Amino acid sequence: MCTWFYADYKSLENYITGAQKSPLANEIMLTMSRSTAMTGDIRPTDVAAVIASGKSGNMGLFPMVWGFTTEVSSKPIINCRIETADQKNLWRESWHTRRCVIPASWYYEWGVLPTDEGYNSRQQRDIKKTRFIIQPTGAEITFLAGLYRYEEHNGKQIPMFSVITRESVEPVRSIHDRMPLMLKHEDVRDWVRPDASPTGITERALTDVIMEAASV
To answer: Is the pLDDT of residue 149 over 70?
Structure first.
C-alpha cells in the first residue's frame, strides 16, 4: 500500500525544479488550487514531480496530481494493483501507453509489529499503529512505478497519477500485505516508454528494502 510518501528537496531537487518549470505547474495551481511545492510529505490529491514520456516520446518531468477520480468513489483512487493493471478498464489503457515513475525519498506505512504472543482482532484495533519509513536498501531515491491519465477539471486537462502496488515482502509483510512497486534506476527510462513492455520490468522490481520507525 502507498498512502503517503516523502520528497526531500535536497536529494530530489532536479526532479522537483524540472516539474515546476513545466507550464502545467501554473495550470494545476490555478485550476485545482493545489500547491506546486512538491516537497515534504506528499499525500493523496497533492501535486508531485513525475517522470513520464512527453508528446515527442522523450522522457521528461511533469507535475501531476495524485489520484484518479471516478464517479463511483468520492475518494481518489491512489493505488493500482499490479495483478489487475492490464485487465480493469480504469487502468488498462494507461498500463499500455501511459506509465510513469514518481521519484520519492521513501514511503510510509502504518502498522503494528507482531510479537511472540500475537494479538487478537480486538487488540489490533486498540493498539496505536506505528509509522514506518520504507525504502530500497542503499538507495537515496525510491522510484515508485505508476500510471497516469488526463482528466478534465474545470475545463482543463490535468494529469493524474496512481501508484502501482504488489504483494509485500519482508520486513514490510509483517505490518502490511501490500507495498509499492519500486523500480531500479536503470529501468526508469524503459518503464515510461510507451512502446516498451512493462511485464519484464516488473519482474526486476526491487524487493530488498529497509524499514524503520519514523522519529516523529
So the answer is: yes
More confident residue, 126 or 39: 39
How is domain 5-110+139-165+178-203 classified at the architecture level of CATH? Alpha-Beta Complex (3.90)
Cell numbers describing residue 10? 535536497
- CA-to-CA dists, residue 153 to 15, 74, 139, 189, angstroms: 25, 15, 36, 29
* Radius of gyration from C-alpha coordinates of the chain: 17
Q: Calculate ∠ Cα 74-62-199, nearest 5°.
A: 80
Would you give the distance in Å from CA 120 to the centre of its chain?
Answer: 32
Q: Are the C-beta atoms of 192 and 201 separated by less than 8 Å?
A: no
DSSP helix, strand, coil percent of the chain (3-state; round to 5)? 25, 40, 35
The SS3 of residue 142 is strand
Q: pLDDT tens-digit profile of 24-83? A: 999 999 999 999 999 999 999 999 999 999 877 789 999 999 999 998 888 999 999 999
Average of pLDDT values for 90-108? 97
3-state secondary structure of 9: helix
Element (H, E) at 157: strand 156-167
Neighbours of 163 (CB within 10 A): 26
Residue 54: per-residue pLDDT: 83
